[in-house]
Amino acid sequence: MNITSLRQRLERLEAEKISTLTPSRPDPLLTMLQVLIAHHLGNAGPTDSIAESMARGLGYDKGHTLMIALRAGRETPVAEDLSSRWRDATRRLLAIKDAAPGCDGPIFAAVVEALFYEMPERLQRHPMVAEFGFTSRAACPPVGQNWFRLSVYP
């Protein structure tokens, strides 16, 4: 390709206003739940990745299978299965502290905080959660009005 054809291609793309996707900031509550699932349900060991441990916590054999499910379209059976696994994992996570799926915000926040402080310090300081400031007793994730309705796809 010569300079002229490259310039023409660039001008055509600019004219079509092709934009690049900017990554959205992850939801702090969802991120916290992912790490909690990785540790409490996926038995995250000292050398395990959060992704592999979270996959185990959701009942997948491999992290790669979870990645395929995360990339599946919203209305596919794979995505529906992932949402079902997510709901089941959050139910099991709450059951660790004898909380019910329909518990109110303050109870949910107390459960999340307790589960957070039961994790090893290396996970409490993991970049996924440290980015949101969840490193001190005073820091507590924001609580949605009905956390149980969370699904992978808003």
List the defining traits of the structure above.
about 150 residues, about 55% helix, 8 helices, elongated, disordered C terminus, single chain, mainly alpha
How would you sum up this structure in a few lines?
With 154 residues, the protein is an all-alpha fold. The chain has eight helices and no strands.
Number of strands: 0
The value of Rg in angstroms is 20 Å
Largest sheet: none
Alpha-carbon distance between the two ends:
44 Å
Helix content: 55-70%
Which word captures the global form? elongated
Name the helix and strand elements from N-terminus to C-terminus, one letter apiece.
Answer: HHHHHHHH
> Spans of 5+ residues with little confidence (pLDDT < 50)?
136-154
Q: Helix tally?
A: 8
Overview of the structural elements:
The protein has about 150 residues and is mostly helical. It has one domain. The protein is built from eight helices and no strands.
Topology:
Layout: H1 3-15, H2 28-41, H3 50-57, H4 63-71, H5 77-95, H6 105-118, H7 121-124, H8 127-130
